[in-house]
């Protein structure tokens, strides 16, 4: 199952894109209650949003973003059937990508 | 623990015991109290809890509901629910009616063990029957499983009955006493906020009425 959920909603002249990503977003400063060891840093570093394979947004993220982060933004234009691709990669080399069609 | 005992109270409120029994009388009294206090709300409105009273909170809630952040947990619970145990059995062998929603029937008074059984306890009993270690009450896996089962029961009225036997009625009374017992730094009881001051504000929060998401199929 993909870690990325995407919802799109067309408005007047714009498209609202919302995404929810399942990710632990560990800062590297937390301690595991079970064994008192520090939990290794594990957070998303880059998030890329493409509209019909053209990059419209990239973010450089740090460890200060909450677990299971949620992003919402507006894009100019957007037609039904257009493809939105969201991709993330984290500091441990994991990555995931998900497509969604604008409805 | 508080939650368990609160459920014991709710267990009482929706008893199908004869009308002379205390739980049913308590329920009528409380319903009358809230219907009088909030005359503009319909019976069904109370199912929305605090959102029935606070339009701003309701707007926020409806916005969140369009893309609920809890979907991740429900997906996790669903995945766990359909993962077979080592002996090949699955949760649905214990909870055959899960598709109709089962969480509205919990907690219930178990006649065999003479205790109140919550949904979490029932899940762990299912695991023990299948020789699996029980899940910790605070563990994410157990919470995700109950979240999934509760989601299947969405919009179903709570359907809890207390059998008319003394031990079960005593459990109801114990929950009720706990609900009215003052405790803590501020010396409040549960009832201080959710019965006596429901609808008022405590700091930034609107206090929800006790008559909340537990509307049952009690004949009116």
Number of domains as seen in the coordinates of chain A = 1
Note the gap between the termini of chain A: 22 Å
CATH topology of chain B: Cytochrome Bc1 Complex, Chain D, domain 2
The global form of chain A is: elongated
Overview of this structure, please?
The complex is a heterodimer of chains A (103) and B (220). Chain A has strands at 4-10, 14-21, 44-51, 54-60, 70-76, 83-90, 95-101. By secondary structure, chain A is an all-beta fold. Chain A is elongated and about 50 Å long. Chain B is mainly α. Chain B has a single domain, classed as Cytochrome Bc1 Complex, Chain D, domain 2. Helices cover 45% and strands 5% of the residues of chain B. The radius of gyration of chain B is 19 Å and the shape is globular. At the A-B interface, loops of A face helix 4 of B.
Topology:
The complex is a heterodimer of chains A (103) and B (220).
Chain A: E1 4-10, E2 14-21, E3 44-51, E4 54-60, E5 70-76, E6 83-90, E7 95-101
Antiparallel strand pairs in A: 1-2, 2-5, 3-4, 3-6, 6-7
Chain B: H1 2-13, H2 22-37, H3 55-65, H4 71-81, H5 91-94, E1 108-110, E2 115-117, H6 119-129, H7 140-152, H8 166-180, H9 190-196, E3 201-202, E4 205-206
Helix pairs in contact in B: 1-8, 4-7
Which characteristics define this entry?
heterodimer; A: 103 residues; mainly beta; Immunoglobulin-like; 4-stranded antiparallel β-sheet; 3-stranded antiparallel β-sheet; 7 strands; elongated; B: 220 residues; mainly alpha; Cytochrome Bc1 Complex, Chain D, domain 2; two-stranded antiparallel ribbon; two-stranded antiparallel sheet; 9 helices; disordered N terminus; disordered C terminus
């Amino acid at each position: 199952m993909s870690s990325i959920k995407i919802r799109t909603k067309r408005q007047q002249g714009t498209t609202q894109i919302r995404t929810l990503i399942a990710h632990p977003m560990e800062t590297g400063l937390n301690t595991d209650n079970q064994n008192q060891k520090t939990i290794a840093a594990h957070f998303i570093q880059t998030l890329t949003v493409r509209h019909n394979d053209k990059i419209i947004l990239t973010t450089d993220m740090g460890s200060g973003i909450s677990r299971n982060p949620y992003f919402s933004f507006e894009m100019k234009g957007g037609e039904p059937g257009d493809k939105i691709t969201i991709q993330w990669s984290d500091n441990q080399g994991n990555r995931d990508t998900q497509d969604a069609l604008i409805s | 623990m508080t939650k368990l005992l609160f459920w014991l109270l709710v267990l009482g409120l929706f008893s199908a015991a004869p009308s002379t029994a205390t739980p049913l009388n308590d329920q009528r009294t409380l319903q009358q109290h809230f219907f009088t206090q909030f005359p503009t709300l319909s019976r069904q409105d109370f199912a929305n809890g605090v959102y029935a009273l606070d339009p701003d909170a309701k707007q926020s809630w409806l916005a969140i509901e369009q893309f609920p952040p809890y979907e991740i947990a429900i997906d996790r619970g669903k995945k766990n629910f359909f993962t077979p145990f080592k002996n090949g059995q699955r949760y649905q062998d214990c909870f055959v009616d899960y598709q109709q929603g089962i969480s509205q029937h919990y907690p219930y008074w178990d006649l065999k063990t003479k205790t109140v059984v919550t949904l979490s306890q029932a899940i762990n009993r299912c695991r023990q029957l299948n020789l699996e270690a029980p899940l910790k009450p605070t563990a994410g896996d157990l919470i995700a499983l109950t979240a999934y089962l509760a989601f299947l029961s969405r919009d179903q009225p709570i359907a809890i009955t207390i059998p008319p036997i003394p031990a079960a009625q005593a459990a109801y009374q114990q929950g009720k006493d706990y609900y009215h017992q003052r405790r803590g730094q501020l010396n409040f009881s549960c009832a201080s906020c959710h019965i006596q001051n429901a609808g008022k504000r405590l700091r930034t929060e609107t206090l929800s009425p006790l008559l909340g998401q537990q509307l049952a199929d009690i004949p009116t």
